[in-house]
Amino acid sequence: MSIRQAPSLSTRNRKSAMAQQPETRINATTPRLDVAHLAKSYGSGEKSHAVIEDLTFTVDAGEVVCIVGPSGVGKTTLLKCLAGLHPASSGRAAIDGRPISGPPREMALVFQDYNRSLMPWLTVRKNLVLPLRHLKLPAAELKERCDSALAAVGLSHADNQYSWQLSGGMQQRVAIARALAYRPEILIMDEPFASVDAQTRFDLEDLCLKIRKDFNMTILVVTHDIDEAVYLADRVVVLGSKPARVLKIVGVDLPAPRDQITTRSLPEFARQRTEVLSLIKRPV
Amino acid sequence: MKGSIRPLTFSALGIAAVLVIWQVLAEAKVAGNALPPATTVFSTLATILGTATFWSSLGATIGIALLALALSAVAGVILGLLVGTFETVRFATLAVLEFLKPVPPIVILPLAVLVLGPTGEMSLFLVVFGCLLPIVMQTVDGVQSTDPVARDTARSYGMREPEILARVVLPSAMPYIGTAMRVAAPAALVVTVVAGLLGGGPGLGQSIYQAQAAGDYASLYGMVIVLGVLGLLFQGATRLAERRVLHWHESYREVMP
């Protein structure tokens, strides 16, 4: 379990960030991820259709933030804006104060549809290698990154198999390992556990918390499962529709380490999930 | 093993039945001298197989078909990737490609013979003309069927467009390209023969034409049989190649024990 941030990389990022915006890095209170008045609409003129309207929230370093909201609210669109895949229509999204204009190097994305996101013609290990090729790493480092990422998700034995030979939960572990091998500082997950069975879901939630702890990862998870959001998060951003807007940001005050049995049976857990649920269920 | 023996038995029975019917019809002289008996054809074929001219025309046919197939595959996939990826290229070329697609190579054969003469180049040109467009069109379809989630994944990891094209889009399009190649391989053989038969290009087509002109029907049918076997080999080889390249695809996956 020894995926550590490559020091050279962090230093390089920090340097380039400083070069661009000298004042932002020095300010210790700058959130890692800063979303302010973000809006996204598709089409133009009269046909324009707003998916997101005026979203504002932050994610601090090392924090787990969950975004919940009714389905079709525009959560995936939000993540695509944050990941630099779609430009925002207005407002801003920034990492360490730098506006996001393309896929940020310190960010990795895990999609819900692991079977569409993993390449079926590549073995598990080659899936991990694919996004690393353009980094031109030395062979030894490439191997070490893949080995430790696979070990971190408990799939060291599966590296020569194809993803479609594995169960759904294992495939999503491969997708997470691919993200880890990229050595991101921020992990963004779009309904990552929505397509697996309940038991696997619990395992993957705990894997998510373990990754946060082991790698000091900042994690943003979109989910429609309120229990999952409360269980994972330090803060839950509750979205309302349509277009998407922030109803409330709920701070989750549950003790660490969290545990599927004890945490979920705490009265505080029930109180918090009720609070989030009533926000979502409330007639808009 | 029962499952693999039974189809073989029935195939053998089918072939035997055709040969018997052929023999009976030929002995009955239903088509006069134009249809010699199977036994005559096979004994003539055995003689032909001993001549150097036969082997050189067979080599010419296979060579032209394979070279044209390779050229079409390389050019077709590259063109297909460009047409499928860039909207401007697509708008500029699609109307022309759609127009040319249904034109059979035989239609432009007189033009090809006029410009290139009864040469191997002429045959090569015709075969490429016939194989290229279906490969281009299939590649375009394959490119456009690339899963947007796979593309987004690659982009989110900072992969650039040329790398995404080579390492994500091209493999995604391979099942489509494989289908195109499986159809193109026997077609390449057919067009090579037609170019020889009607255009005077080198190879078995030309030999068949000469046998026909000389009234040597036994040789003619002998060479047709050789072509049939060659067609089966082409088909089998492309199937095998497809299975190897696309072993990961749903239609070829082997379930793990």
Tag the structure with descriptive keywords:
heterodimer, A: 284 residues, alpha/beta, Rossmann fold, 2 domains, four-stranded antiparallel β-sheet, 10 helices, disordered N terminus, B: 257 residues, mainly alpha, MetI-like fold, 80% helix
Q: Could you explain the architecture of this structure?
A:
- The complex is a heterodimer of chains A (284) and B (257).
- With 284 residues, chain A is α/β, with parallel strands linked by helices.
- Chain A is built from 10 helices and 10 strands.
- Chain A folds into 2 domains: 60-106 and 185-284, P-loop containing nucleotide triphosphate hydrolases (Rossmann fold); 118-183, no CATH class.
- In chain A, 37% of the residues lie in helices and 22% in strands.
- Chain A is globular.
- The termini of chain A are far apart.
- By secondary structure, chain B is mainly α.
- Helices cover 80% and strands 0% of the residues of chain B.
- Chain B has a single domain (52-245), classed as MetI-like (MetI-like fold, Orthogonal Bundle).
- In chain B, helix 3 runs parallel beside helix 6, helix 6 packs antiparallel against helix 8 (161-199) and helix 8 (161-199) runs parallel beside helix 9.
- Chain B has 10 helices and no strands.
- Chain B has helices spanning 2-27, 38-48, 52-85, 87-100, 109-116, 120-144, 148-156, 161-199, 204-213, 217-245.
- Chains A and B meet through strand 6 of A and helix 7 and helix 8 of B.
